[in-house]
Each structure stands twice: as C-alpha cells, then as structure tokens.
Amino acid sequence: MQISSTNNINKIIDNKHIQQTKQPQTETANDRVTSGSEKISGSLWRAMTQKIDPCGARSYLLKEGLMIGLNPSDVKNLVKVMEKGSVETSNIEMLFGLVKDGDVSKRTIKFICSEGMMSESMEKDIVMIYEAKADGVDVNERYVPQRANKDEALAKSEVGDVFAVDGEKNVFIKNKDGEAEPLKMDRDMYLSLFPAAERFASAQNKAGDCYYLSAINAMMDNPNSRAGVLQCFEQDGNSVKVKFPDSDYEYVAEDAKLPQNVEKKKILTGATGLQLLEHAFGFKEESNAIKQYQEGYDKAMSSLHEQLASATDKDIKNDLERQIADYELSNKTFETDRASKNPKMVFDRDGDRNIVTDKNGVGIFRNVDNIGKTTGMYYKNTADYYRSEGGFLDTVFENFGYNVDYAEDCGEEAKKMIGHFDDADSYLILGGTKSGRSPFEKKLDRSMSMYTGHAYRIIPFRDSNGNELFRVSNPWNGSHDAVMSFVDMSKYFTQFSCVKVK
Predict the structure, then answer these.
(1) Residue 265 gets which letter from DSSP?
(2) Residues of the chain scoring pLDDT < 70
(3) Which of 8, 163, 242, 447 suits 74 as a labelling partner, its CA being 20 to 30 A distant?
(4) What's residue 351's pLDDT?
C-alpha cells in the first residue's frame, strides 16, 4: 500500500496554518471547518503547534473529558503527538472531534504510538468526513455516493470504494480488477454495518483473538481484499446472514444487531459489521468442533458395534457393551446440553485446531464454566470460548481460501517474504511477537505498542527519503500504526505469515 506522507488537507495545514498560529486569532470551535479545501484551524490547532509544555496538552485532554479511561502511557504518547505540529498532530485533532461527537469509540485514542502514524485508510475516511462537513454535504452521500450507472461509478471511484447505482437495489464495491462487484446488501444496511471511519477503528476487547482481528483488519484495510470481508454478509430483510467462505455454517443476526445476551466485553469495539463477523467466527469454530465430534462418535460407535457383533468371548462382549452404553449416555448429555438455551459443553483443541479425543477417537467435552475456575477466563457462551483461546496467524487467511507463506524467524528469508515495498496492496501480512512467561500479553515497548505473544497487521512502505519501513498495527487500536524498520521488528517478532491477495 503506497503511503503518502501528506494529503491535501495536511499540506495546507503544514504549509499555511502553522504560520497563521503566530498571529492572534479568535476562531471558535465552530470555525475550525471552513471550506472544502481548507480545514482544521483554530484554538486547538494553535495550542498543539506551539509545542506547548506537557501540562498544557494534558490540561486540554482533561478539559475535554478525553483523559478519562486513559492510562499514563496513553496520555504521555498523545501529548507527544499533540506537541509535534505535524501531519499526525492534525490527524489526532480531527480524531478528537469524531470521538467527542460519538462517531468513533474513545478506544481510538488509546495505544497511540508517539512515533507512529494513523492508518492510511482511517486517515482517508476522516478527511472525507471533514471535507463533506466543510462542503455542506451529507457525509454518507460522500461516503457511499449514488451514481447514474456503473461506468460513471467506476470512473469516479478508487478500488475498495462502495457506491450505489440508480435502478439497483444493492450497493457495489470496486474490486481489485476494477469491476463493479455487487454486494449482498442495500445502501442503508451497508451504512449501518460499516460506518465511515468506524470501519477502520476496531479495537480488540477482552478476548484472546488477536490472531483473528489482525487478519480481518488487514483485509479491511487493504482495498484489494476488502470485498472478501464484505461478501461474508447477506441481507435478509432487516436481518443479516454472516458466513465465512470456507464454512457451511451461517450465523443470522436478527435486525442486524448483536443479541442482547452477548458478552460485550468479549466483542471488539468498532463497526457493527465487524462485531457481527467476530461473533460469527466463534460460532463457526464451534460448528467445526461439533462436526469433528459427531464424525468421531459415529465412527467409534460403528466400530464398537462391529466388534461386538463378531465377539465370542463373554468378557470382551461385556466390555464392548459397557463402552457403547457409556458413549450413548455421554452423547445424550452432550445433545441435551446443545438443545438448551445456553449450552455449556466445549471441546479442547490441539495445535491443528482438532478436538482432543480419547483412544477411540471420540471428543472429550467439559463444562465451559470449569475453565474459568482454573484459568480465570469466564465465558457466557461457548462460541466466545472457541475464538478466544488464542489461535494461529494463518487460521483466518485459510478461512478465506488463501495459501499462506510462513516464516518462523526474523531472518533474511522472512525479510524477503514480507518486503513487498513496490506492491504492498497485493499482499496481506501478519506478525507474531515472542512469547512471554505469562499466557497474557506483557509489555515489550509501550511507545511502539509491542506486547508479548500478540498478533499484528503489517504493511511495508517507503518513506519520502526512500527508507524501507513497515507500518505495524496492534489490534488493540486498529486505526494507528507503529513505524519500524526490519531491524526494529527483529527485536520483537518471531514469526510472520504472508498471502497474495487473490
């Protein structure tokens, strides 16, 4: 993905507004948005670009209610960005406005990297929002425009853009081949599931699925692969069906919302569509586990009955009859649990995502509540367990039919595998950091948002000086990237996965 060091709005800010801050001004907050090509001036911008002392920036955060919920590291890094008077300062200022207006979650200002960058996709959406407001245009009209026909829409769109066409019920996305690919939802449904900016502002919550969220963030962030995520959704009246490409399981979200009984702290903060997809992923994984159990149970029972039919020794027959009776009773317990409103039985899985079985190949299940008693991780529903117990970098990419290249070190082969500086949009890259002693993530470098045993989305790029660098995104805040060289990354990462966008 080509990374531009500035965009139209920020060029104006850097070249013009910084000079204006030297003169007394009286703009109010409402004056900060002026015309469609000149924005973001006023008291907040002046305060930031005058490189005020930390107490001044902290005072602003406190006054605006932005400091609530932030830890000292969050505040420290925000203050550093606020004082720079750079493009990133402008981006943070615009982000503050969206947070205060309730357009994006406050989680977008947590885990900011003091030397990092806002993700390019998030930056584009925020600029689009401010430009629309400045031009007096409804944001959604700019975000998902209505076009007379597909040819006009394609001529005025970039890859990854969504648009509506006169006479067509559902919206379209311009795919990587430059075609108008129909989505299975209308404009209103798309806007409710994937609001501007919020679609790139997901933040992992209290669930161990960084491997999942980093992959989905990578696919959403890359315009060439975005259609693959959106095609998981199919509108059905006011509801929406969610289905992954590799699965027969279909999750139905009534009224296109999360159910009332969902444990929200186990669901990401961000766009409703991404929340539904995460929730559905847990059920898909559970469906796979149950299918493995049923296949193993049926095979084992068939084998035991065959052995019983041919057995002549009384003791052997008694033993086979006992095994069959035990399995039937156990299976009845499992089926009764599955038929209840709140099933509790889950299967442990091995490193290959296969359920753990006994000597006859029958899955061993246990009550999910008992897991919490030993690990401290409690789950209100079994689907949360299946996606929250950690995973592998290649899991989600494989769900979308990708062939995954994998490197288990930070050597030259890994550098070559992920170093797609000339065609970054053609690849999706994830990285995993070194494990710690604890099963929970521990800080490696807070300024870079680096933690142990964690998955990250990675995008290679060249800066304005030609330096080969990487944008590295922690799923705790998918809207912001650390910026690293490969040497920097070698301090933290021990594995990478890479796929070519199909």
Answers:
(1) G
(2) 1-55, 436-441
(3) 8
(4) 78
> What gap in Å lies between CA 187 and CA 144, rounded to an integer?
8
Looking at the fold, whether 451 and 391 belong to one and the same domain comes out as no
Asked whether residue 381 falls in the same domain as residue 419, the answer is no
Among 370, 395, 420, give the residue marking a domain's end.
395
What is the per-residue DSSP string for 110-126? SS--TT-EE-HHHHHHH
Domain of 127 in residue numbering reads as 8-133
pLDDT given for residue 436 in this prediction? 67
Residues 389 and 407 in one domain: no
Phi then psi for residue 6, to 5 deg, are -145, 165
Q: Phi/psi at 47 (nearest 5 deg)?
A: -60, -40
Q: How many domains does the chain have?
A: 3
Quote the CA–CA distance of 211 and 215 in Å, as a whole number: 6
Helices (H), 203-271: 210-221, 226-230
Q: What separation in angstroms does the CA of 314 have from each of 122, 187, 317?
A: 72, 70, 5
Start-to-end CA distance of the chain, whole Å, equals 15
**Same domain as 332, residue 232:** yes
**Domain match, 378 and 233 both:** yes
Question: Are residues 219 and 284 located together in one domain of the fold?
Answer: yes
DSSP string, 298-362: HHHHHHHHHHHHH---HHHHHHHHHHHHHHHHHHHHHHHHHTSSS--EEE-B-TTSPBPB-TTSP
Instruction: Looking at the structure, tell me whether residues 326 and 426 fall in a common domain.
Output: no
Q: Bridge partners of 495?
A: 432
CB atoms within 10 A of CB 399: 18
What is the bridge-based pairing of β-strands 480-484 and 455-462? unpaired
Beta strands, E only, 402-492: 405-407, 427-433, 443-445, 450-451, 455-462, 468-473, 480-484
Q: What is the CATH number of the domain that holds 436?
A: 3.90.70.10
pTM over 0.70: yes
C-alpha 137/C-alpha 327 separation (Å) is 65
